[in-house]
Predict the structure.
Amino acid sequence: MAKELIKVALIGNPNTGKTSVFNQLTGLHQQVGNYPGITVEKKIGTCKLSETTKATIVDLPGTYSLNASSIDENVVIELLLNKNDENYPDVVVLVSEVENLKRNLLLYTQIKDFEIPTILVINMCDRMNLKGIELDIPYLEQKLNTKIALVSSRKNIGIEKIKTLILDYENLPTTPCLNASSIDPEYFENLKKAFPNQLLYKLWLIITQDVNFLNLERNQIQSPFTKSHADLKRLQQKETIKRYQFINDTLKIGQKIDLSKATDIRAKLDRVVTHKFFGYLIFFFILFGIFQSIFDWSSVPMDFIDHSFASLASYSKTHLPAGEFTNLLSEGIIPGIGGILIFIPQIAFLFLFISVLEESGYMSRVVFLMDKIMRNFGLSGKSVVPLISGTACAIPAIMGARNIENWKERLITILVTPFITCSARLPVYAILIALIIPEKRVLGFISLQGLTLMVLYLLGFGMAIFSAYLLNKILKMNSKSYFVVEMPSYKIPLFKNVAINILEKTKSFVFGAGKIILALSVVLWFLGSHGPKSTFGQTERIVKSEMESDAKTYDESTLERKVNAYKLENSYIGIIGKSIEPAIKPLGYDWKIGIAIVSSFAAREVFVGTLATIYSVQNDNENETSIKAQMKQEKRADGTSLFNLATGMSLLLFYAFAMQCVSTLAIVKKETYSWKWPLIQLFFMSGFAYLTALVAYQLFK
Amino acid sequence: MQQTTADLKIGQRGIIHDLNIDEIPLKLLEMGCLPGNAIELIQIAPLGCPLYFNVNDSHVAIRLETAKEILVILENEN
């Protein structure tokens, strides 16, 4: 009788299509969370195996071996070492790939040493013909003590086979493939005597890794068995050689490769993509294409969302009974939700491009091309990935810096990534550019607004590089510079993987940042529509008496506008805004923009939403007006338009440089283990932003 | 003088003879960069570093200083 719930762990090297297998097995039945205390993404999905049995599948981070060199890889070891973990697997599914079987099997033999049933999945089997590879599956199964599933997650072949094998996991052999302890028999013999109840391989891992093993204190085994770092590494090398000997012997019989049949697209493409001239040209055109299309393609759905929410707000205002609740709905909640949803098109497009670049294998070539250049600035070629994904959001980007081996290069990458134009800046840029840059085309096809946007991106990138250069000079740190990058074979990105990735990232934005934005909108609405009794409560009387002293008569609508303007100025938010106005006046901002800047400290995208809320409270009209139109109507005391070139430029520069994101500060604290770095970031970036905005306004005024 | 992988020309192959284990990351060893295995230089990045190798069927890029720590015997000198 089979169990009703089987726990499965999916383990494998990076670039083996592990996530595709996971997506095929679980479809959309996935949950993404974090491992407690660290920010490594934890993906769990469920899969129906038969009428009575289900499997919960954990997709563990990709790793080359069980010798961890990053927090992500540590997660794999910690799970396997801890039998009490709720996700400790009944069975491991090891995903390997037909072209790199030799290397993938290294991890396989390590997992086998845990004596857990392990199914070997050989993915991308549809490429076997193309590469002239033949496999003797019965022989391999016998040699490797397991069952093998030949799978193509791309063509949906073999997924059912994996499910059948999981169902039958209890009949899988658990004997290891080889005896790795023969590399130093005496040492391991003593270790075994000292801890007879423990698996030898577990003990070895605990000695060599920085892992906290819950049941067994590390220092407990340390004392008689410690070895110097160099000795341990020598033993690890011996262990690796030993494992490869076994693998090579096995594959000599079990795998035949006919090199004459192999066609190598990779070599041909690599020659072009990493060419000293064409390589950079291609990279530049890809970036250029991304930015042009993001601005051009997403403007249609963004305008649509903007207008829809404006009309929804005015509809609810006219059709619901007047009162506090209707005001909250039409001036707080609806513009608030609109302020979240308006980013979805751009975020989706950005993640589309980034996941296509990653999935296709192109990103590694960029790392290769850029390493030498980036090193001049104290960065690594691997910093390019965080810097590019920083265009979507600094938070995953900073987490992505983890695979940079050198601490100094990693720290500098973390510190400068927030300068990169993230998607939260986009709406701010988009609306300001639309206000101050004319809608013209240069040379017939390059949109001037798109070009301005690209200049802003380059500005952010330039600032990141420049501060990296400074940091590289200032920071005194000596750490060994290791750099190993795999160059995976090129693949056409799988639609399903890209789609799930976009869906997940967008969802986490809407529900993560979205909550803050919505909450702030409601708070802002309250602060904007309430005020102290002595002034705010007496609005009508004060305005009327002012009018009488003017000795003029106003029509109804002018009166209404005057009342609303007075109300806003004397509301709580007006009082806050007025008190910070002296500090921001030299930058060309009025107190309303000041409020937007203060509230967007939580997240930049709040800026647009805040202005939308303030203006809709102020105008209080029943006609639908989009945020853009309302901003256009804003006037200074002297009657000139508030959002002119000078103010616009000043705001653009402010948002380009200022550290306006609480979540980023939090993640930097987490990744650098101290408040020191995020605080330095905050003061340096925001101070610099203030200065450049000041200079810009004074120049363009 | 001993030849290292940094001395290979593009397309040239060699057999790894020895390596300075203190200067080589474990990850590289695990990808199959071990004595006795063949290594081929596929491409050099435009500014002379990093170098892109095929070792033991793994395609990896490493920096010049790491490549200099891997000693090779050239397969065909011409």
